[in-house]
Amino acid sequence: MENDRVIAVANQKGGVGKTTTVIQLASGLAKRGAGRVLMIDGDPQGNLSLFFGSDGKRDFGELLAVLRNERRVALPEFVRRNVRRNLDLIPAGNRDLRHEQSDADIVATYDVFTAFVRSLKERYSYIIIDSSPSHSPLERLLIRSSDAVIVPLEFQLFSVSGLESIIDEVRACSEGTGRDIRVHSLVFTKAENKLNRVKSYREIFSAFHLPVYEVCKSEYITRSLEKSRTIWECGPASYAARDYREILAKGFPVAP
Ligand SMILES: Nc1ncnc2c1ncn2[C@@H]1O[C@H](COP(=O)(O)OP(=O)(O)OP(=O)(O)O)[C@@H](O)[C@H]1O
Ligand SMILES: [Mg+2]
User: Fold this and answer.
1) Ligand 1 centroid, distance to 61 Cα (angstroms)
2) Could you state, in order of their start, the residue ranges of all structural domains in the chain?
3) Which CATH architecture has domain 6-251?
4) Burial (CB count <10 Å: 0-12, 13-18, 19+), residue 183
5) Which residues lie at CB < 5 A from ion ligand 2?
6) What is the pTM of this model?
7) CA distances from 79 to 58, 160, 191 (A)
8) Cβ(18) to ligand 1 under 6 A?
9) What is the pLDDT along the chain (256 residues), one digit of tens a residue?
């Protein structure tokens, strides 16, 4: 687990809390002060980038094109430094990547992008990658570059088949790269204890034998996104902050 330093947050289902989870975990890791943290906005919707505001840096889509064509990039052109203390971001513009780059283009970028991300491990303690809600070569590119994948999801029966499909995807990426890429954990966002069904869901999902976390449904998360303030800034004493803190403590242990 100590080697899980490049984390992709992925689920092909939309609106399950991927971007929220990237924001809170990455900013939480940066707050520790044990090295710098980089976020990569791998979702062309650019929600993560919107949260942190824009400053005209070149975006993730351009980064892929430059890597593919020139094999190397001038990193400062793409990295927004210090969106928070110790926290950097490679932003995505709100653009339709699919119109600009074909699936074959993305596939042709797999290896050079992985090499790029892995070279960044020298500079960053953690790299946290947001992804778009789709099974696509783009999602695969992001997972292939990672050490482990966090899967946010909701307590619904439909989530089971979605989860099986993302586990298959992670396995395919691992086989494709010849590197061990694992599912880091499942994060149930918007968890509501009062639902009677939750107990049976907990049982169903325990069959996957993966670490499971729950983040309660919280007004503070809604507020966090509306105000572009992390949970540590707008509700450090909230239950949602407690829940994300638990993921940080158990899922990202500090080296002794
Ligand atoms: N713990 C929570 N409590 C309340 N609302 C939440 C919580 N987590 C996420 N949400 C809400 O769920 C919605 C979707 O969250 P988010 O944008 O993070 O999902 P996503 O998986 O990144 O979506 P997309 O697939 O479109 O990229 C947001 O409106 C957010 O406020
Ligand atoms: Mg998102």
Assistant:
1) 23
2) 6-251
3) 3-Layer(aba) Sandwich (3.40)
4) buried
5) 18-19, 47
6) 0.96
7) 8, 36, 34
8) yes
9) 557 899 999 999 999 999 999 999 999 999 998 899 999 999 999 999 999 997 778 899 999 999 999 988 999 999 999 999 999 999 998 667 767 899 999 999 999 999 999 999 999 999 999 999 999 999 999 999 999 999 999 987 778 889 999 999 999 999 999 999 999 999 999 988 766 777 788 888 899 999 999 999 999 999 999 999 999 999 999 999 999 999 999 999 887 6
